[in-house]
Design brief:
Helices cover 52% and strands 12% of the residues. It is of the alpha+beta class and 448 residues long. The protein has a single domain, classed as Cytochrome p450. The strands form 4 sheets. The protein has a 6-stranded mixed beta sheet with strand order 1-2-3-9-6-4. A hairpin with a 2-residue loop joins strand 7 and strand 8. Helix 5 packs antiparallel against helix 11 and helix 11 runs antiparallel to helix 12. The relative contact order is 0.14.
Length: 448
Amino acid sequence: MTDPQIPVFDASSEFHQNLGLLKVAETAMRQHGDVVMIRASDSRQMLLMTGTDSIRYWKNHQGQFQTELGDIASNAGTTRILIGDALERPENAAIWDASRAGLAEVNAQWDSWAHDSLIHATEALVADLARSAGAPVDLRPICSLWAVRALCPALFGRALPDPEMVEGLMQIEQFYFAMSTLDAEATATPEALEEFQIARGFLDRAVHAGLAQNGADAPNVLATMNRCLPPDLSAAERVDFLRPTLGRLLLEKLNIDGLGLLWTLTHLAQSPDLVEDMADELAGCADLLHAPDPQTPLCYAVIQEAQRLYPELPFIYRITSKEMEVQGYRVAPRTTILFAPWLVHRDARYWETPNRFDGRRFLTPPEDRSSYLPFGIGPRVRNRTQFLQHQLSVAVRAVVSQFQMQLAPDCKRGNLRPILRSTLAPRGAVPVSFHARGARAETESRAL
């Protein structure tokens, strides 16, 4: 008796390439079910595994999945390439030991530094929206700036101007996108890619600027880690040893391009009744910027719902480390696996009206926790999830408490359809008008 064959969805045509992975994966699942091999080309294919049974298998058998991939780079593998391995080399063991001491001090101070950055970023966000005076503003640059301001000062201090930090982080995303889409030949020597050189150059420039501008006792990660390094290092060596820690924290703690905030505000701008209910909830909160997230459950539920529809990791790549059996199919070693939170989060088997934004949905937690994984799974994901969702919670509470909001009538609906790069971004401008609470009513009253 032969093993059942995994169904194949041929996506090697130019038509499917133009459709993009979001639509290809959705179509493949609809035609063949939760386990289907997507053939992207003659030399590249990946096994799409969706549905909560597949997610639970992944959770319970993580040792069977490597994060280092063959023809498709994982986020973790791409991060290691970008930040370098200077601290991991045997000849630098003493530097590594010194860096571990610095990390212990960073961990002791991190919550305070990160909180200060978040508060300052959120206050700047509210001020920027107030200056718009009700005129529509594109959420994309506003949310990108907030994300940078909410994290980078805790890492680098005031190393580079905010717009330059935004641009540099976009360059990093372009490197991730290149590594996830180029074929094996192109990514065999990633250091030769133009995208790598630009992204690495930005990180090194940020570290150099931070070293020049931060005093030894500055309250941030760069200054703390630098104090632990030997004083006789060259400038290039110092950057090589600081980049891994700073780069990893940057990529772990960043609300990438502010997209979590963007998608939340985009839906709130189309849900005036929900916004007013959130404002009523916030009226009973004494300190919006410092209150724990559970004190404003509706606001927190809104954030979780936005991340259901737009998970930070819509697709997650892994590779099998040995032969395994999943849902009746035998999967060979070194098979590239594509897990798809994007599909699980929009699956009618687990969610009622799954394509509809329902800001109250998460007031009742989902019955199956495997149906919700906006940041993936793993031992570090819980802390990352709490950190990023808290950042969003503070920002959303501040905006809703100060403003009523409305999507601009001339906003093109196609702009609101997400496009997959390395994250889910809008296809164009997202203009929203923000009116200070009470100001619109006062203006309309005067007009009468």
